[in-house]
């Protein structure tokens, strides 16, 4: 049987022809940055100060923090059901209790107040508010709970920065119609979003519709390692799914759901409530593995595919009303189409972009050159092989966590890329933080401090170059349930003993407190 690489080799002359044509087209049109707003002049000497209203915060999500998985009228979410399946989570754990933030939020907010943060990014549990989606009643206990949380946040002089869904949805929607694979989900999301705007919007001024839909789609529908565990048999260990087509469909329904929520917010609530609405993306930076043009183009493709979602793209449709050129070229007619209504609401479909930036990878071209079979070789990944290693050496510094290398330069590059591609739109770094395996480091987390300090420096470099960055949220205040890694990876400024749930400050907590304090003092001086 013909192997994949010999098949690629036999097609080399054809690849070569495509290569020349694509290069000619891309160099002649160079459409990517055509329409960007020129950045402010840079002055390398200038020390950038964070403006007074810059948001410094910590970030969390409902499933990873809350626990109380069946309390006060909440029903099962997709993650409650998924974690119950043997073998899905590294340590066999779940978020039934997590760090019990549902009950301990006052204590946790006190910790935040002590750090001096002025914002808290968290997500609402959809299954707590609408246990059966639009097929059942609102759960008033859920509404009261979040009312109390929001009031407690504001009472401490902290600004709530709220995500509507951070991977978790009511399982009911999965059972009823296959959740994101069905266009019906848009009605459910719209209904849910409107309830949140109506009940909380008088106090919440920052909304994000989705957290990392790119990760949700890749892991849920391409690789099948997150719920609903769907993928092709050739890609992963799933009983059902189609890794080529379903990610496109799920992503399309997510984009349309985002647009519907934004449209409701804009037409019915925004003027009166005066808030902002955006979306949060996982934003890995890609460095070309070599200087070859093909690898440089591969890095651009990876960026376009990944940021706007590996094989589905989120931001271009929301900002420009169309999928990116790179995707159109590769998917052609398989790309789902937007309706006229979608396109209408996609005008200014965002007030800001949330960037979750942790790490970077090398990108190697697989379009014009032969790649080993495996991750990255297919059109779903844009014919890019993304790898943290080059000739056996890591990009940046490995952390011991497989997906995660320290590469602060990637933060600067990513912020500049988003700034240029999306016309200097306001950006919030909605997540950045350091995770390490349960190595026994209790409080002396020097590596986390070094990581945060170098990434914040990179963020400042991007500000100096003119990027409009308005906030930074570290992931996370507390160690918590890290999805399929369970409790084996720790990200907290506070150590959590998962038996007693006791919170103990690490070095990084006092470092962050001091960092925020210094910058507050500086901005007050600037004002004086
Ligand atoms: C991000 C997720 C967040 C957390 C961090 C470590 O991708 O949004 O929930 O798991 O990674």
TrEMBL record:
Keywords linked to the UniProt accession: Glycosidase, Hydrolase, Signal
GO molecular function, one term: coniferin beta-glucosidase activity
InterPro entries on file: GH (IPR017853), GH_1_N_CS (IPR033132), Glyco_hydro_1 (IPR001360), Glyco_hydro_1_AS (IPR018120)
EC number: 3.2.1.21
Signal sequence coordinates: 1-27
Reaction(s) this enzyme catalyzes, per UniProt: Hydrolysis of terminal, non-reducing beta-D-glucosyl residues with release of beta-D-glucose
One Pfam short name: Glyco_hydro_1
GO BP terms: carbohydrate metabolic process
SUPFAM superfamilies given in the database record: (Trans)glycosidases
Domain of life assignment: Eukaryota
Residues the record marks as active site: 431
Similarity field: Belongs to the glycosyl hydrolase 1 family.
Protein name: beta-glucosidase
């Amino acid at each position: 049987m013909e192997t994949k690489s010999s098949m690629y080799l036999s097609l080399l002359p054809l690849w070569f022809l495509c290569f020349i044509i694509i290069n000619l087209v891309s160099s002649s049109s160079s459409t990517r940055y055509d329409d960007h707003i020129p950045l402010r002049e840079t002055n390398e000497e200038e020390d950038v100060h964070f403006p007074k209203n810059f948001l410094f915060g910590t970030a969390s999500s409902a499933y990873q923090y809350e626990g109380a998985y069946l309390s006060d009228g909440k029903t099962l979410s997709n993650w409650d059901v998924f974690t119950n399946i043997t073998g899905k989570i590294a340590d066999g754990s779940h978020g039934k209790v997590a760090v019990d933030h549902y009950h301990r939020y006052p204590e946790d907010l006190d910790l935040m107040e002590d750090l001096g943060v002025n914002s808290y990014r968290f997500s609402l549990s959809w299954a707590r508010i609408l246990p059966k989606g639009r097929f059942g009643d609102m759960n008033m206990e859920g509404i009261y709970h979040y009312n109390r949380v929001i009031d407690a946040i504001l009472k401490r002089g902290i600004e709530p920065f709220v995500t509507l869904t951070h991977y978790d949805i009511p399982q009911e929607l999965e059972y009823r119609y296959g959740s994101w694979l069905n266009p019906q989900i848009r009605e459910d999301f719209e209904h849910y979003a409107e309830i949140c705007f109506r009940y909380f919007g008088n106090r919440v001024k920052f909304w994000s519709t989705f957290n990392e839909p790119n990760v949700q789609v890749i892991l849920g529908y391409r690789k099948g390692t997150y719920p609903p565990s769907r993928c092709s048999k050739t890609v992963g260990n799933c009983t059902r799914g189609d890794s080529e087509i379903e990610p496109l469909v799920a992503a399309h329904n997510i984009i349309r759901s985002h647009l519907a929520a934004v449209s409701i917010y804009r037409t019915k609530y925004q003027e009166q409530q005066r808030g902002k609405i955006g979306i949060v993306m996982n934003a890995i930076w890609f460095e070309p593995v070599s200087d070859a043009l093909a690898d440089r183009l591969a890095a651009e493709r990876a960026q376009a595919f990944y940021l706007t979602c590996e094989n589905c793209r989120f931001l271009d449709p929301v900002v420009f009303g169309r999928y990116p050129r790179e995707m159109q070229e590769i998917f052609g007619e398989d790309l789902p189409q937007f309706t006229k209504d979608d396109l209408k609401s996609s005008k200014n479909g965002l007030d800001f972009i949330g960037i979750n930036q942790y790490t970077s990878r090398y990108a190697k071209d697989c379009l014009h050159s032969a790649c080993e079979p495996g991750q990255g070789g297919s059109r779903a990944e844009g014919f890019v092989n993304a790898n943290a290693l080059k000739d056996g050496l890591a990009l940046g510094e490995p952390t011991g966590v497989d997906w995660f290398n320290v590469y602060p330069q990637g933060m600067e590059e990513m912020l500049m890329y988003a700034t240029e591609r999306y016309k200097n739109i306001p950006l919030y770094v909605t997540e950045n933080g350091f995770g390490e395996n349960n190595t026994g480091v209790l409080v002396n987390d020097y590596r986390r401090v070094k990581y945060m300090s170098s990434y914040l420096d990179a963020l400042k470099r991007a500000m100096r170059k003119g990027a409009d960055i308005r906030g930074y949220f570290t992931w996370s205040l507390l160690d918590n349930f890290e999805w399929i890694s369970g409790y084996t990876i720790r990200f907290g400024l506070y150590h959590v003993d998962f038996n007693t749930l006791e919170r103990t400050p690490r070095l990084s907590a006092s470092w962050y407190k001091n960092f925020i304090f210094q910058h507050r003092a500086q901005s007050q001086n600037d004002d004086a």
